[in-house]
């Protein structure tokens, strides 16, 4: 390492040491503020902050919502909720702005929930009303399902773990929790805190009150010195110097009054500690204010002792054959005896097992010999030994000198035995130590200590006397910190030292062996659970030396053995410090700790932090303006680093500083220093830049409108910053112009960000289709951005009524940037290309619903661009449809096809083949799958159902006209005049096209009827049915395709439509009459055949004679039955054809009624012509069958009784009944059972 590097390293080390010294000094002042507050208290009315969402939690939430969308959860939901979740997942959870929210540290689970709630509120409002189910119920249900998805499978019933300091910082904290918090803030270690706590005597109420009095006296002396030496700060006015001294004196007097108002016995709010003793006897230690206090009865130890007696040496006073034995006992237990042995060989190897609760038991072993005398009551004791074993005693057998009776010759009597004392599991360490406590100043003496584990988390250091089961003294180790220490002067006994320290207590221990000390410190280190790990010091610093002194400790290093640094920190005079600088450091570190904790604080301190900072400012005279200026600077530092800071907090601090600078005395201070004014102007300029930047980047600084109300607060703060003083408001135009500039920049930033997000590079050389595709995707993103702006950032109108107008100008500027790319993409599109219509429809549907953007500059430009395209498109479509009608009817086969127009969707217009003109294609708007084959041919590849309508040409015409009108309707043209013009043109075009269709159909029908057969072989052709269906469809489509909306309908147009309607009705009547006439011709043919049998004709006589002659030799068919059956078959089959092939029931019934009436009338006329003639038997039989079957068939087809039983039928019925009676009288059974009377036995 070079000299330069060594110098830099040394300089860095010195700087760290100075910073650490300053932090420790600040911590001393903070300790006193917490220990004895008399100015401030923890606020209880602060807003509770929510837990932050971190990156890992965001990823987990994404996975949970994706699992729900993939159907991997058990949550049941309808399609509407799934769509809402999908939109939330795509637009929010996956967005970059949500990731930025999480990264900024200002995002909580509540923010996620509120964004979803705002999204679904808009969706639910758009849903139709459902009887019995309110929209509030739907919202509640959806929110409950959202919560279930967000939580996932987390078990909310699991037991809560011990709360970390970060998770309880929103609560009212105890003093111990405040100590722990500021240890973390200032980087103070636990044992350093304990030494400072004890050194400051924070548990001594009188000492703390005296310290405050000394501080206040020091501040008064400082004020006097300033006045005497005229060492004033530089003020903006020289008149403030005298006022400054008065303010110093007033602040001290106020503090004195606050101190005097406290009760003497209490010393401060919640200050007095409740001390709990471990026993009634005073001991060298005290338990302090621990939550769970141990008593002596809680400490229970159980030991197992094994005593093995091996042999005795030095037994000379007895004869060799005399019997000896040993007894053994543990104090307070039973006595055991060995076997007997001869005095010449006293060996046993006998083991005795004992249990005891005494850590220092007393073991007695005695040697006896038997007395053989008659009067001997007990055996003679030869010697004894008393031992006090411990768990650390040797386990192997050893010789012990026995105590013999007086005048015994066995002076060197020894016994070999082993005493093994097992250590119980809850005994962690034991041994003899010197000890002395701090509180009660017990004398320094040697005790036997046992480290006992009472429970999993509770340990106690207990001292015992001999033959006692309960500890004499007990020290619960929770809260203590153990470490090595240097020899203590004035303590005799012990070679090496260590101590245990906590707030309010210091216990010093000493032992005779270094290894024993290491074992004790390690055992106690494990028991206390302290974070600081003790490190054994060097040997030359840990032993009591009679000559020479150990190396003096570093003044600021707070190892427990180095007391000088602690004394320097504690004895420092507070009035000699620059508390403005110290407070700035304290507040900055506190804010850093707050911004890094687990709460979404947005820069707000926790109640405990506010309390300590308030107390510090009041106690040590930190000016309020300096406090808020420093706070503003720190908050802006975080805000400039993309951290979320509540603008309301900035507003509060800025307003305080502005009020102070302009002499409004918000804290009673009338003096303003030059430094304060300069800092305020600097911060004002910096804050102005920050706020303008935030408004320019409002989509990213306030994503999705979070934090709630932040944009409104930012606008209000900007207005406050623009004020020259605290009374003169900012002109509205000045504020509006400033915001307009910010939003113009915002439009450029948002659009460039959108291009980057969509990964679109505007290249004029790209293919036209690719450019159009990019513009369509970019248009969707632009609409989404503008909708989000309106949804999440419209709260600014609560601050300024004209904010909505500025936001509309911002949207126009944003769309103007899009317009440039849009125009360039449209210019490269080929002529007569209609693929751009979806783009117009997308943009127009959004713009026309926005009251600020509808018919705005961009919207008008869009209309100007697409007006020629729409007109050109309709011209070409009109020409192509006209040509398709002409060509289609020329080649028409009149084969029926299924209806396409009943459920017409918004689909592409099909191509019409074999036309010289290149037909334009309607753009596709989400065409259903079943419409796919229609894009090439309307007829081929379709499985036709059993329901038929018109021909290919007519269906194609109606479908094209409807599709064209639906397309223009879907354009939703915003300009009313042009929209009305388009509608009128399309309606008139449809009227002309349908008129041509009806006339061409009528011409084809007439031609078909002329070629039709006139016999009973005639069957209604399917083409004729198709023609009827064409007219029916034309009738239905006319009201939809040829009539304007009622609000726009004109008399001329209504007359035009009425003429078409009349044309269709007249054509329909003519076609029905023509068909009925054809049916009548067939009936006339049948009746003309029956006329041959008229009475008195020559042909009748020949036929009668021929039939009679032939009947003698062969079986002759019944005369007239073939003719009747043929006609009945003709009627029935044509009825079935008409019923099956014509789709309109009303027209079918009308046709059947006319057909029936016509048939009955024809038969009636025929019978009337033969009124004077008697019907031939064959005529009668044929007519009866024809009339009866016709009546029944038409009744089955639904013809009403009023029509069936008309006058013609009654006339026919009466005539045939009379003829039937006459024939029965003359010919007997000639009718062969035929009768006009109804009979169920007849075959219909």
UniProtKB/TrEMBL annotation:
Domain C2: 286-403
Keyword set, alphabetical order: Calcium, Cytoplasmic vesicle, Exocytosis, Lipid-binding, Membrane, Metal-binding, Protein transport, Synapse, Transport
Domain of life: Eukaryota
Region Disordered: start-end pairs: 532-561
Location relative to the cell: Cytoplasmic vesicle membrane; Synapse
Keyword Signal: no
MHD1 domain segment(s): 820-1001
Domain PH: 426-529
GO biological process: dense core granule exocytosis; positive regulation of exocytosis; protein transport; synaptic vesicle exocytosis
One CC-aspect GO term: cytoplasmic vesicle membrane
InterPro entries named among the record's database cross-references: C2_dom (IPR000008), C2_domain_sf (IPR035892), CAPS (IPR033227), CAPS_C2 (IPR057457), MUN_dom (IPR010439), Munc13_1 (IPR014770), PH-like_dom_sf (IPR011993), PH_domain (IPR001849)
Gene Ontology MF terms in the entry: lipid binding; metal ion binding
Protein name per Swiss-Prot or TrEMBL: Calcium-dependent secretion activator 2 isoform X2
Source organism per UniProt: Austrofundulus limnaeus (Annual killifish)
Lineage: Eukaryota, Metazoa, Chordata, Craniata, Vertebrata
